[in-house]
Every structure is written in structure tokens, then in C-alpha cells.
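2024-03-11 09:14:02 DEBUG pipeline.ingest accepted 1 chain
2024-03-11 09:14:02 DEBUG pipeline.ingest length=124
2024-03-11 09:14:03 DEBUG pipeline.predict start
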Amino acid sequence: MTDVIRTLVVDDSIFMRNILKKILSTTNRYVVVGEASNGKEAIEKTKELNPNLITMDIVMPQLTGIEATREIKKEFPDIKIVMCTSVDQEKKMIEAIDAGADGYIVKPFQAPKILEQLNKLFNV
């Protein structure tokens, strides 16, 4: 088995963070090493925890997911960042990809699709 993928879950909704953590815990590939509730906290936790993967909500207080992605990618270009978006946020997704996001998953979350998307990023 390859190394586990250290994951930081970022969303201003504890409900959404819990759903993602539950989905990720169904496999032994992903280990949630931390969570953050806004973009500023996401940057701090990234520096502290050194994750391989960040699931990043787009709309959050203090710093948006797009702003946080831009900052994190400047300092940590190898960390994979997957944006969490609602179906109606296509324009924001384009901004997120421009900011350095590696992919996206769509709310409401469906476990098989999320794991499939994440596995593709890590060639699993």
C-alpha cells in the first residue's frame, strides 16, 4: 500500500466538514489531519500540518477559498487543492482553477464521486 494522503478539510460549515471527514474515513487512503473554518485558518493550518491534500470551500469568511488557494499554492505548489462548489458556481470554479486549484467536487457530496475525483489526483 502507498502512503496515506494527509488531508486538511476546509469549510465554514461544520456540517459539511463532518460529511467530508466521514466520506474520507471510509477508505484507509485519506487521513484527516486537521480542519479549518475559513481561508485565513486554512493557510495557518497548511503551514502547521503540511497536508498532501486540501478540500477547500469557495465561499468563506475572512479569506475566500480562492484567495486562500492562491496564497497556499505560492508557498506550497505541490499540495493538491480540490475546491468544493455548488452546481451554480461555474464562474467561481474558473477563478479557482486560475488560482491554482487542482480539481473540484460538487455539493451535495456523493461519496463515490468524491473518492473517484480524489483518487484521480493521486493516480490511485
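2024-03-11 09:14:41 DEBUG pipeline.report Strands lie at 5-10, 30-36, 53-57, 80-86, 103-107.
2024-03-11 09:14:41 DEBUG pipeline.predict end
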